[in-house]
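Lab meeting, action items carried over

1. Structure of the two-component assembly. Owner: GW. Status: complete.
Input record:
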Amino acid sequence: MTDDLALVERFLRARGEDAFLALYRAHTPALYGLALRLTGGDQAEAEDLVQESWLRAVRALPSFHARSALRSWLCGLLVNVRRERIRADWRMVDAPDIAPAADIGSPDDAIDLERAIRALPEGARDVYVLHDVYGYTHREIAEMLGIVEGTSKSQLNRARTLLRSSLP
Amino acid sequence: MTDLPREMRPDRALEKRVASTLVAAGLVRRRRAWPVWVAAAAAAVVLAIGAPVLRPTHTLAQGNTYVLLLYQDSTYRFAPKGHGAERVAELARWADSLYSARKLERGGHLVGPGPIGGLFMIRAANDSDAARIAATCPFTKYGGRVEVKRFEE
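Predicted assembly:
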């Protein structure tokens, strides 16, 4: 956290590329991991989300006052970019992307779970990934997704029930 | 908590793409490759006369400032889902080449209702030079319309 603040301050002093890359390298693997899970393993879409999230993050960094950890703040931005994309999808007239899902790089025994997570409904998947994979609290998730804590809890229960019924 | 890996490394090309996009949007300043002897000379001058004169600034080419407005009209073909980043990166490469020619002031997305999706402020010698630059914008390849206006303060 202290390191993050130092990196943010260093970047805001001169907005240099080196300072940006230090932030980028510290947090992109987590953002990309989250993006891959939220997109069901779609590599191109996940990269797109990471790029858009950094664009927004750099614009908003001057108003980041370390009330939350930088990583949660960035992950929250990414989740919201993803949600806006889903809402805007109906406007896109081109054919849907049919590229095969990327290999998420898990050991063999986790592949079934990865597949089952991809198959979850959108809302339940977002909450499950943020809570059970990334360890966010219901309060943090509610803030990120703009929902109430109760909804976060019920979506998590729904996701767990669906996963239990779909795993061997 | 589920024991799945939380961090994944994306393709290295993404780093370059993100950095170029942010530079083109005027949000990040490009790293300059200063030769060692320049750095050494600069350090000596700093000691002698203080820092301000040495701050590298982006000097622009001679001419007027023009605004290029990028219209996403009904003719514009949006990128297929999952390929938006490639299109932004293509635009960023184009903006980078203008930057290298000292012809880019800044540029970026315009967020909100209406058909104008982005703008670039460029430096061009005259109206026809500005029109020529606008015609090279990759946005036009996808049915996008680029409007050119001379900017006067």
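2. GW to write a short summary for the group page. Key points so far: The mean pLDDT of chain A is 81. Chain A touches chain B through 48 residues (CB under 8 Å).
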